[in-house]
C-alpha cells in the first residue's frame, strides 16, 4: 500500500510528488499520457520540439516559487535566461514593448501614452503594491478556503499587515481602479485586457483588483526563457522524484477512484492501487468521470455546478520554420481589433524558441507556438470542425505574416480543445482554470483540501489558481497538508 497516489504529472502533481517523496512518503504517480507535464508538456516532430501550452517562465528569480522549490529539493533548475523584454504587443498601428524592468516599462508608458502616463504609472505602482500584499500571503502556502478552525487560525497568522492594508480593494475590479485614476485610453485598456485574458482569463470589468494586480506585476518580478521549454522544469522535478524513491506509471489512465477502508485507484490496465491519500492533479471538470458515486454523493463540489462554470479552451498552431524572427524578442502578443473580444484569433500569443536553443530546433531554424483563447464547446460539432480549424488558422497566420513573414514552414500542426481533451484528458479540452465572473470571484475559490478525508486537489481550478506558479504552489500546499495530517 502507498501513502499517497498522485493522479497527473502537471506542475501541481509533480511538485506534490517530489516534496512528499523527500519527506519519506511512499508515493505513486500515475500519468495517462506518454509525456509528463499535461498542458505544460512537450512533443517533437521532425527535429522540432513544441510546447503544448505554457511557454514563458516565471518564479526563477531570487525568492521566487521555483527558486524556493528547487532549493527545497536540493537540485538545480534547468538553465533559464532573464528577459529584458517580456513581449512585444502588436496593434494594427503600433507596437508596445513590454519591458521587464519597471523603470524601462515606465519610460515606455511615457512614450506610448504621454497624455495619461502619470496616471498609468500611479496605477501600476498601486498594482505592484497590492501584488506584494497578496504574494506575501500566498507564498506562505495557506490552505484557502480553510477547512478547519486550526487552518483558519493558521491562515490568519500568515496574513500580515500588507494583506490587511489591501482589504479595501477586495471587492473592487481592475476597471474600478482605472476609473479611480481617470484612465480611459482605449489602446491602454486593450493592452490590459490582452494581458489579463492571457493570465487570469478575463478582462478589466470582471477581474478582481487583487487578482489582476498579481497578474500585472508577476512578469516584472522576473520573466524567463527556459531552455528546452517549461516541460524541462517538470522533467527535472520528476527525475528528482525518482531519485528520492518515488514510483511512476506512464500511459496508465485512472478510470476509478473509490474508498473502502483506504483509497482504491483503478486504471485502464485493470490495476488497482491502494493508498491513504489520493491527490488529483487536473481540472475539476474532469474528476467526476472517475469518482465513485459514493464519493460524489458526499463531495461538496457538485458536478452540475461545475459543468456551468465557464472556462476557456485553447486553439494552438505549432510551426517549425527557418530562422527569420527577431533574436532578442521571443514573445509576441497580437491584438487585431482592440474593440472586439480577446479570443478566437483576435488576440493571440506567439512564442519563439531562442536561436541558441538546440533542444527546441536545429541550427538556423525556430520552433513557434501560437495560441488564442477559444470557446471550447463549439469545437465538438464534427460537421463544422474542419472548416472552423482552417478559417482560424488562416486568420491568425495572415496577421502574423504582416509582421513576420513566415517562409519555409517545415512543420505545421494545429491543436484545438478536442486535441487537448485527447492528449491531456481534460473534459471538453477546458484549460486555464475558471473564468472570473466579477469582483466576488475570489470567494468561489476551491481549497486544495476537500471535505472528503484523504482526497486532495491541485492544479489550475483550485487555490491559488492557474499558471505554472499557481499550480506548483497548489501542489506544495497539498504536500504540506498531508504532512500536517499525520
Automatic annotation (TrEMBL):
Residue stretches spanning the membrane: none
Residues in Amine oxidase domain copies: 12-482
GO terms assigned for molecular function: oxidoreductase activity
InterPro entries, per database record: Amino_oxidase (IPR002937), CrtISO-like (IPR045892), FAD/NAD-bd_sf (IPR036188)
A UniProt-annotated Pfam family: Amino_oxidase
GO biological process: carotenoid metabolic process
PANTHER family: PROLYCOPENE ISOMERASE, CHLOROPLASTIC, PTHR46313
Name assigned to this protein: NAD(P)/FAD-dependent oxidoreductase
Organism of this sequence: Anoxybacillus gonensis
Amino acid at each position: 500500500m502507498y501513502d499517497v497516489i498522485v493522479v497527473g504529472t502537471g506542475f501541481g502533481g509533480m511538485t506534490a510528488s517530489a516534496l512528499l517523496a523527500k519527506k519519506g512518503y511512499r508515493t505513486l504517480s500515475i500519468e495517462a499520457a506518454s509525456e509528463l507535464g499535461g498542458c505544460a508538456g512537450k512533443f517533437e516532430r521532425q527535429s522540432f520540439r513544441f510546447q503544448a501550452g505554457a511557454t514563458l517562465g516565471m518564479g526563477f528569480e531570487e525568492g521566487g516559487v521555483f527558486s524556493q522549490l528547487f532549493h527545497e529539493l536540493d537540485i538545480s533548475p534547468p538553465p533559464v535566461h532573464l528577459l529584458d523584454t517580456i513581449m512585444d504587443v502588436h496593434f494594427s498601428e503600433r507596437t508596445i514593448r513590454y519591458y521587464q524592468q519597471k523603470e524601462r516599462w515606465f519610460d515606455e508608458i511615457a512614450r506610448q501614452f504621454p497624455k495619461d502616463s502619470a496616471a498609468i504609472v500611479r496605477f501600476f505602482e498601486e498594482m505592484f503594491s497590492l501584488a506584494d500584499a497578496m504574494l506575501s500571503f500566498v507564498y506562505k502556502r495557506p490552505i484557502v478556503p480553510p477547512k478547519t478552525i486550526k487552518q483558519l487560525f493558521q491562515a490568519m497568522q500568515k496574513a500580515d499587515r500588507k494583506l490587511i492594508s489591501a482589504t479595501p480593494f477586495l471587492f473592487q475590479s481592475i476597471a474600478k481602479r482605472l476609473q479611480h485614476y481617470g484612465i480611459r485610453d482605449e489602446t491602454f485598456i486593450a493592452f490590459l485586457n490582452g494581458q489579463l485574458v492571457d493570465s487570469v482569463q478575463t478582462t478589466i470589468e470582471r477581474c478582481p483588483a487583487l487578482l489582476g494586480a498579481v497578474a500585472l506585476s508577476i512578469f516584472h518580478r522576473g520573466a524567463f526563457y527556459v531552455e528546452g521549454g517549461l516541460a524541462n522544469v517538470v522533467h527535472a522535478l520528476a527525475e528528482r522524484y525518482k531519485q528520492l524513491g518515488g514510483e511512476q506509471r506512464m500511459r496508465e489512465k485512472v478510470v476509478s477512484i473509490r474508498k473502502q477502508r483506504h483509497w482504491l485507484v483503478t486504471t485502464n490496465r485493470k490495476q488497482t492501487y491502494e493508498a491513504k491519500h489520493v491527490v488529483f492533479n487536473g481540472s475539476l471538470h474532469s474528476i467526476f468521470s472517475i469518482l465513485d458515486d459514493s464519493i460524489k454523493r458526499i463531495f461538496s463540489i457538485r458536478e452540475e455546478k461545475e459543468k456551468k462554470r465557464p472556462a476557456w479552451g485553447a486553439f494552438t498552431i505549432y510551426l517549425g520554420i527557418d530562422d527569420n524572427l527577431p533574436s532578442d524578442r521571443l514573445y509576441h502578443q497580437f491584438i487585431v481589433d482592440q474593440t472586439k473580444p480577446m479570443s478566437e484569433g483576435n488576440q493571440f500569443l506567439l512564442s519563439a524558441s531562442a536561436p541558441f536553443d538546440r533542444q527546441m530546433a536545429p541550427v538556423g531554424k525556430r520552433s513557434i507556438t501560437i495560441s488564442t483563447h477559444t470557446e471550447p464547446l463549439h469545437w465538438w460539432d464534427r460537421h463544422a470542425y474542419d472548416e472552423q480549424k482552417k478559417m482560424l488558422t488562416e486568420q491568425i497566420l495572415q496577421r502574423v505574416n504582416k509582421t513576420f513573414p513566415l517562409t519555409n514552414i517545415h512543420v505545421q500542426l494545429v491543436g484545438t480543445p478536442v486535441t487537448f481533451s485527447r492528449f491531456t484528458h481534460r473534459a471538453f479540452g477546458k484549460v486555464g482554470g475558471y473564468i472570473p465572473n466579477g469582483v466576488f470571484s475570489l470567494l468561489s475559490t476551491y481549497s486544495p483540501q476537500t471535505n472528503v478525508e484523504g482526497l486532495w486537489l491541485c492544479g489550475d481550478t483550485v487555490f491559488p489558481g492557474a499558471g505554472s506558479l499557481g499550480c506548483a504552489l497548489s501542489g506544495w500546499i497539498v504536500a504540506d497538508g498531508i504532512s500536517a495530517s499525520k
